[in-house]
Amino acid sequence: MEKRQTFNRKQFLRLMAALGLSPVLGACSRAVPLSEEPAPSSSEPSPTPHPTATASPSSTPEPSPSATSSPSPSATLSPTPTRAPTEVPARGRVALIRTDDRRAGVRRAIDLLGVDGPAGGNVLVKPNYNSADPPPGSTHDDVLRTLMEWLGELPTDSVLLAERSGMGETRRVLERRNVFAMGRELGFQVQVLDELEPEAWELIQSAGGHWQRGFPFPTRLFQEADYVLQTCCLKTHRYGGHFTLSLKNSVGLVAKYVPGQSYDYMRELHNCPDQRRMIAEINTAYAPDLVVLDGVEAFVNGGPAQGERVQSNVILAGSDRVALDAVGVAILRHFGTTPAVSQGRVFDQEQIRRAADLGLGASGPEEIDILTDDEAGGTFADDLRQILTA
Where are the domains of the chain? Predict the structure, then answer.
């Protein structure tokens, strides 16, 4: 009998690259190495220095909307290999656990979802350390520790945590949140994305995208990853995002500045009326195998660093970012939230609508299946279904 050759995801990507083919997500993304991007014109603003390590992340605001010159468009973007999308059998499925115990809740949610963990290879983890503020301003220690311990029980080759902070200098934020110390203890590595070399970044532009130049994304890290895990928080966002759940957490994978260039991609994002659509478009660049949302506490107003806090006592897990964020918005509405998050149908929220239109997940509430494992979860899920379909 003839022996059939098999490939893992990384080997598959290398083969596709060698053949000149490009596996992409549903809304065909286009990318170009930043070394091919036209140099910034002399009319662009001069480089703005990054915050110093002594700056306090909790007191460093995100860019506030202000007038800025429109960037000159980039050259025509040509396809380049990106990480192959995960075939997700759990599309539309969201595990919901009612608990105030994060460690137990994360484990129960993963078990309830019934997804396999990595079966070897490299794992990339994207947490939520936009700032060093305590949860839900950032990832809770118990959530990160539980996920890293779970990964440590599986046959992985290496685990890499990757992050860029928006409110404070990333390395300093991660130090204040004890991420490096936890990495040394549990055996995972940490990549400060601001410290990547220029050639590590590629411009990505989704079909019909709203980014003027595309957005700089660390494609190589995802090409080298065999499994991607994301963990996010449950909170509103006062700087125009309206809410920051799994889709918005991906902003921390985009460079603010590419080394050696002066263009500020975060200023473009925060000044653009299409900000929420642009947030969704970032998610065309990769597909997580698992997302865990910590909603034990939530900001129902303010955010992303500080805000009006409620004890929402929920953990969500899934691989469909659209479904997860739709359920997250329903939870915020359940507890009473901002007019922007409360307005209209859940699937009319711009982040969710654009992501659904791009084929990143469920296209409507009828495709969402909320899984629970006890009576408390079932009762809460019933309430959320009514909000989702209203």
Answer: 88-389
